[in-house]
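Appendix C reproduces, verbatim, an entry submitted by the partner laboratory led by Prof. M.T., so that reviewers can inspect both the input and the predicted structure.
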Amino acid sequence: MNPAETPIALGADHAGVTLKDSLRAALEAAGHPVLDFGTHGDGSVDYPDFAHQVARAVTEGQASFGVLVCGTGIGMSIAANRHPAIRAVVVHNTTEARLTRAHNDANVACFGARTTGPEVVLDSLSAFLTTPYEGGRHARRVAKITPHPVQEA
């Protein structure tokens, strides 16, 4: 993982807090600054609260990327994708991590603590953070992700 000057925003619910803490340690050990929005314990919390905090940090430029962890990664991705500038993806392996960055310019990686092993998540996060967006033929498609208002004739 190549360190970046802009922090990486982290968030998790109670199902993902242990994995989030492991990811934070790995990121910091690699020299990445981290914004940890929580949660910080195993008490039940609502995942959208953390997804929105991470999405805002990425949207406002406080973080270069976001990383969200819940039981499956699915709820976090749904909540984060409510923000127009966010392209959050559930990642299960390094191939998905590389392709979603290269082809989709994804800016938030979501992981399932109950569905993906910690070693795979660490490898996938490294691939996500180090793979550049290719642009080119993909740019037209990425631009179409956010719908434009319908123009009345």
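The first helix runs from residue 17 to 29. Additional entries are available on request from the coordinating office.
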